[in-house]
Structures are given as C-alpha cells and as structure tokens.
Amino acid sequence: MSLAPLSLPNDAGCVLYIKHMVCARGIRVVRRELEGLGLQVLDVRLGAATVLDQAGQLDWARIRQALATAGFALLESPAQALVDRVKLAVAQLLRRSGNTLRHREFVPALAREVGLDSRRLHAAFAQLPGHESLISYITSQRLAYAQELLQTSRLDIGRIARQLGYGSLAHFSGQFRRFAQCSPSAYRQQLAFTQSVD
User: Fold this and answer.
1) What is the pLDDT of residues 106-150, one digit of tens each?
2) What is the CATH number of domain 6-76?
3) How far apart are the first and last CA of the chain?
4) Which CATH architecture has domain 79-197?
5) Whole-structure pTM over 0.85, yes or no?
6) Of 62, 76, 15, which Cα lies nearest the Cα of 43?
7) What does DSSP assign to residue 55?
8) Whether 19 contacts 61, CB under 8 Å
9) Closest C-alpha among 182, 101, 195 to residue 147
C-alpha cells in the first residue's frame, strides 16, 4: 500500500493524514511518536501532521507502525483525510454547548468549519466507496447523539430535539424511531429498566 503524501510548496515538508485524532492529547501523542522516529515535526493539527522530508527518505512502514501502536492510522489519500476531518467537525458541531443549528443551517456551518463550500463538501464526502451521503451521515450522528443525551442527561425529549436543531418534536421522534426502532421515550424507559435490573 503506497502513500501519496501532499508536498508543501517548498517541497521540504510532507503532510501525513492521520485518523483517530480527536483531541489535544492526540496531537501531543502523534508529535511524540513522530519525533521518537527521529523525524523533524513542523506542525501537528487534528487529522494531520507535517514532517520534514528531505529527498523522500521517510520510512512509511515505521511511521505506520508507530502511529498504529498509539491507536492512530495513516489515511492513504486526501479524500479519506477530508472525510475524517468532516466526521470530526460533525461531532464537534453537535456537541458545542447550545448548538441548535437546524438541518438546513448545519451543512453551511460544517462547510465553514472545514474550509470548503457546501457543494465541494458533499462531493468530497461522496468520493469514497461505501460512504453514505453527507446528509444521511449528519442525521445518523444527530440521532446517535440524541441516544447519548437520553442515556446521560435528564433533559426532556423536547429539549433534546431543540438542542439538536429539530423544529418539531414529531419530526425528531419519527426520525429517532426509524433510527433506533423505538420512540425516544421508550428508549429512555428501556435504559431505566436495564439499569434498575443491573
């Protein structure tokens, strides 16, 4: 499997696209792992690290192994890196306190977050085989977050629906039912019953 890294304009740096970097701790760990290989690390951000590559001397097998040991993986293309970055941005947007972005507002906010226009964002997400559409992915992540809120908070269902950007409780409940095969209230009751039995 060959990696086709992107070169910086001066061809001195090589961008490594890295999966599973979701927080500042991941940035520190990736930097430490790469520096432990003797690489000069120019920059590390969520989803990417830039290292000095003089004359194409990077040992990709060692880099892959070091990252895998720390729970990360190299992404083999910019398209995969973009999809990973979009997924991270979706999670961050959903979890921002007070986020009440409606569905139609979410994609433009996401596009701003990742620095692309909405059309390019949809196209980039659809490039990789086996991926659902961007809208389907966002909806499934909203509903997975709703499950998390139903499990971990005492917010009423209407408040959860509003927090996730749903304009109507009926619309939220219908989508949740299709996603989880039960209503939000039944889901919460199942959790309460399961926890009382444990």
Assistant:
1) 899 999 988 888 998 888 777 766 767 888 888 988 999 999 999
2) 3.30.70.100
3) 47
4) Orthogonal Bundle (1.10)
5) no
6) 15
7) G
8) no
9) 182
